[in-house]
Write a structure and sequence with these properties.
498 residues; alpha+beta; 5-stranded antiparallel sheet; 15 helices; 17% strand; binds adenosine-5'-diphosphate
């Protein structure tokens, strides 16, 4: 029998779904003209019919039990007003009040079946009408509020029960779990009853707990309103999964913190594929680097050889080959940098470096092969700074090369050095294509390439600024850009002195 009920319900649902799809495809309005008229008629019947019926019932009772209810003239109609206001709303409630008044005057108060308003009833009648109207108003309001609250409650309930792929967890102000959905159970194995009342660190892995990731999420959500969470969480059975989602703080309109909602989904599979891809790139780049470096060495030897045994044509080929090889080496370095950053294994080999000398050398180097732009240096930094020399060189080369690349018509690039109290600041300014604010907010993202005019002709991978900003970040500094389209850009970064 339950089997049959189930399949019946399924069939019914299928029929509803088919009708909905058909209506959706036809862009059918919610109601046809006929249905609208029917609804209006029904609401009239409900609005007036209900007061008539209820007044009639009350009156019948009053007339049937005249001896008991001799003193009750108006008061008997109050239940009718209550019921009608609750079912059909304010206007029906007021109509019921008026019908009650007419019935009381016409059939109950002497002289019967006549409507003279004797002074004896005048006061009672006015009080009854005012009370009836007030009662209708409050009851109808109460009813509306209740049905709205029920609607919200039901939508919320359905959301919690039907969101299966996403875990939703509500926290109170102190981070204790107050509610969780079915999805949270599917993803973590914890039932709502396991979670409610527990501190939300219960969801984190041992390492996550040691790193106090939950505290980071809590504080970021509190300070910034939202924390983007990408980390491993632990299931009830002890296994891990990679969760991606966010935690949002919930504030009332009077700025009272109500708590937090944490939403997450399982992206372990995607993460695994991403890791495999990163690993592959990293291994391939590593493996490529050695043979390519060897070829580079042999080419340098060949260059030397042809210097001593001049052969113009061969010299030219060797020169071209070593330029292309340099590009290949740069690409390999970029790939290695990106995979290091992605895997969080970026390591800095720091040493005390004279920034002035470093930048002078770099500028000379780039200038030796750059004919159009003059690279001008402004300011000096006298003190030595503790940095990873090779990596900061990479940042500088990247910024200067970009400045040249993205200012094809300009003649200058300016490098400015500033020695501040706690940090040094280096900026590279060009007078080229510039960028809008929209582009400027994204240039430090991985694989981002701007959509400026003519950018299609300029080669690039969209990785240079990502790597540079990460290197600066790893040094405890900050990279920024100010720019205006068609005028030029300034990329600046800081490095703390200690
Ligand atoms: P790539 O130059 O290989 O595209 P980058 O990460 O170095 O990658 O730069 C990202 C994007 O930032 C570029 O595609 C370009 O749109 C913009 N950009 C970078 N430097 C400049 C600059 N000096 N002037 C204008 N746009 C720039």
């Amino acid at each position: 029998m339950p089997q049959r009920t189930f399949s019946l319900r399924k069939q019914l649902r299928k029929r509803v779904i088919n009708t909905l799809i058909r209506d959706f495809r036809l862009h059918k309005p919610e109601k046809t003209r006929g249905e609208e008229v029917r609804d209006i008629v029904l609401s009239w019947i409900k609005g007036i019919g209900l007061p008539i019926i209820s007044t009639f019932i009350v009156l019948s009772i009053r007339l049937r039990f005249t001896s008991f209810l001799a003193d009750a003239t108006f008061i008997l109609f109050f239940p009718s007003i209550i019921v009608v206001s609750w079912i059909a709303g304010l206007y029906s409630g007021i109509i019921a009040t008026i019908f009650g008044a007419i019935a009381a005057l016409y059939f109950v108060s002497p002289p019967l079946t006549a409507l003279p308003l004797t002074s004896q009833f005048e006061f009672l009648l006015i009080t009854y009408l005012i009370e009836g109207a007030i009662m209708s108003y409050f009851i109808a309001n109460q009813r509306n509020a209740k049905s709205k609250a029920e609607d919200v409650q039901q939508s919320f309930q359905l959301l919690m029960e039907n969101t299966i792929d996403y875990g939703i967890i509500f926290l109170d102000k102190r981070g204790y779990i107050t509610n969780s959905n079915y999805g949270a159970y599917k993803l973590t194995g914890y039932h709502k009853s396991d979670l409610v009342g527990r501190f939300f660190s219960i969801l984190f892995t041992k390492e996550g707990k040691a790193k106090k990731l939950y505290e980071k999420e809590y504080i970021t959500a509190l300070r910034k309103g939202r924390s983007e969470d990408d980390n491993y969480l632990q299931k009830k059975n002890g296994t891990d999964f990679f969760a991606s989602g966010f935690t949002t703080s919930l504030w009332t309109q009077n700025n009272q913190l109500r708590g937090f909602v944490k939403l997450f989904r399982d992206v372990t599979q995607t993460k695994r594929l991403e890791n495999e891809k990163e690993d592959f790139i990293s291994i391939a780049a590593h493996e490529l680097r050695n043979p390519v470096s060897s070829i580079n060495l042999y080419l340098q030897m060949l260059q030397k050889y042809y210097k001593n045994n001049p052969n113009k044509e061969a010299q030219n080929y060797v020169q071209k080959a070593s330029e292309q090889l340099q590009r290949l080496l740069d690409l390999i370095t970029t790939l290695l940098d990106v995979s290091q950053i992605q895997q969080g294994t970026i390591t800095l080999n720091k040493e005390a470096v004279d920034m002035n000398t470093l930048i002078n050398q770099l500028i000379d180097n780039i200038q030796s092969s750059e004919k159009q732009h003059k690279i001008i240096k402004k300011g000096t930094i006298k003190t030595k700074i503790i940095i990873d020399k090779r990596k900061i060189e990479e940042v500088m080369i990247n910024l200067i090369n970009n400045a040249i690349k993205y200012s094809p018509k300009a003649k200058q690039v300016v490098v400015t050095l500033k020695n501040k109290q706690k940090e040094i600041s280096i900026s590279v300014t060009d007078f080229g294509i510039g960028m809008s604010n929209d582009v400027a907010t994204k240039v430090f993202e991985r694989f981002y390439r701007g959509k400026q005019k003519h950018i299609g002709n300029i080669p690039g991978l969209g990785l240079g600024l990502y790597i540079s900003s990460q290197i600066v970040h790893a040094h405890g500094g900050h990279m920024s850009v100010t720019s205006s389209p068609e005028k030029g850009s300034t990329f600046a970064f800081t490095i703390p002195k200690t």
